Amino acid sequence: MMAARLQVVFALCLIAFASPAIAGDVILTNPRITLRDGYVGSPEFMKECDWAAELPSHLVEYSKGLVELTDQELQGLPGRTLRLRVMHMRSADGGGFSGPKWATVRAELFQDGKLVGQYQPYRQTMTLFRGGCSSLSKISDALAGDIATWLRRGNFSVQFTDEQNRIEIGPEEDVPPIQ
Known about the structure:
This protein has helices at 2-23, 44-48, 51-63, 132-153; strands spanning 27-29, 34-35, 67-69, 80-90, 101-111, 114-119, 122-125.
């Protein structure tokens, strides 16, 4: 009985000491996600839909106080910042008849300007009778949940380099022409 009480008191002390550290360690991100540099494609749904603002908003909700929005430029801010970029996406009106809608987002966590973690979730949906904007809204909700889980897990590593996004063109082919 006495041992159980000591365990409870010890657990409460740990929570009391950890709470201020967690509360003061907020991650700041912008209220809109952006397209990656050099993005080629048809991001018409970035203009037509508000899913680029929905994802950060859902992220704040799902992170339960860990993430906050700021209009400031993240690059110069001290502390922890999260940059969100669309790496690839596809959406079209027409429900299931226009094929799957999907998006890949890269979340990059910085500590005082130094990259400390990257995460690149992918989600897709193929629902009949759902337009492009509503499909992307559903995808952004799922991606926000994935990113919030990654941030709460706290296991960060740098996995990607910007060079991986560039297309490399090899030497000319040495194949005789078809006759």
